[in-house]
Design a protein that fits this description.
The protein has about 260 residues and is mainly β. It contains two helices and 15 strands. The two termini are about 35 Å apart.
Length: about 260
């Protein structure tokens, strides 16, 4: 009996330890795992090495990237400011930046800070599907919504002037004979809280200026082309730091983690 009780205690302890390890993998400030790739560490060198402008229909600037490296307003270190002059007035697509590397399935960590009320940007998976960054909006077009596909989990937002974190696993759409047979899917943690689970994504929203396939059949013409991680410039001071990605190969339509 004592041996059995000891085994139960050890099992509970192991499960608790495992849960702690898993829970520690999401949220503001978590480091990049050794098997993942750092996309942005706060430096100008890494911005230029890993990122470029997305040259969509509304593109109206030129390299080098005009996003400024600025002091972190909360912690030590630096961040990049998405307030590119070319995007003044909310001209998304004019100066968005995208990774030079394209991706299919992946685990992603992004940290952002909205400096002022109404600050607007966006995190685009495969340069297609937007996870919204928009202060003050709790609708399906608002903060941390899979845009126009889910409600905003606005309650998990830390507010302006504070760092926030998106942790997600994304699975790209699957195709057979050129036809989409499985929709893209994402599970998202927002500041450590799981807010979207195995959310299917139906289409690209925002038209041709929004990203890959936005101009195909009203955003419904999804293609089997990998895309980079894109960050949106909308003429607002939204900062980014600590961005890393781990490529995956998800055989089954399941992104929960």
């Amino acid at each position: 009996m004592r041996s059995r009780n000891l085994n139960i205690i050890l099992s509970i302890s192991f499960l608790s330890f495992t849960w702690c390890l898993v829970s520690a993998q999401v949220g503001v400030g978590i480091p990049c795992p050794s098997d993942a790739k750092i996309l942005f560490d706060g430096s100008r060198e890494m911005l230029d090495a890993n990122w470029t402008y997305w040259e969509g229909p509304r593109f109206s600037t030129e390299l080098p990237i005009k996003w400024r490296i600025v002091p972190d307003p909360v912690d030590s270190g630096t961040a990049m400011d998405s307030n590119d002059p070319a995007a003044s007035g909310g001209k998304y697509g004019a100066a968005d930046i995208v990774t030079k590397q394209a991706f299919r399935d992946f685990r992603l960590h992004v940290e952002f800070l909205v400096m002022e009320p109404g600050g607007n940007s966006g995190v685009y998976l495969q340069n297609r599907y937007e996870i919204q960054v928009l202060d003050g909006d709790s609708t399906t077009h608002g903060m941390a919504a899979v845009i126009n596909e889910t409600e905003s989990p606005y309650h998990a937002y830390n507010g302006t002037g504070k760092w926030n974190a998106y942790d997600l696993v994304f699975r790209a759409a699957r195709f057979e004979n050129g036809m989409r047979i499985e929709k893209a899917m994402v599970t998202l943690y927002f500041n450590g809280e799981k807010v979207h689970i195995n959310q299917q994504i139906n289409q690209v929203w925002g038209g041709p200026n929004s990203g890959i396939d936005g101009g195909n059949d009203g955003g419904k013409g999804i293609t089997d082309t990998p895309g980079g991680l894109k960050l949106q410039a909308e003429g607002h001071h939204v900062l980014y730091r600590n961005i890393w990605i781990k490529e995956l190969d998800l055989k089954k339509p399941d992104t929960d983690f």
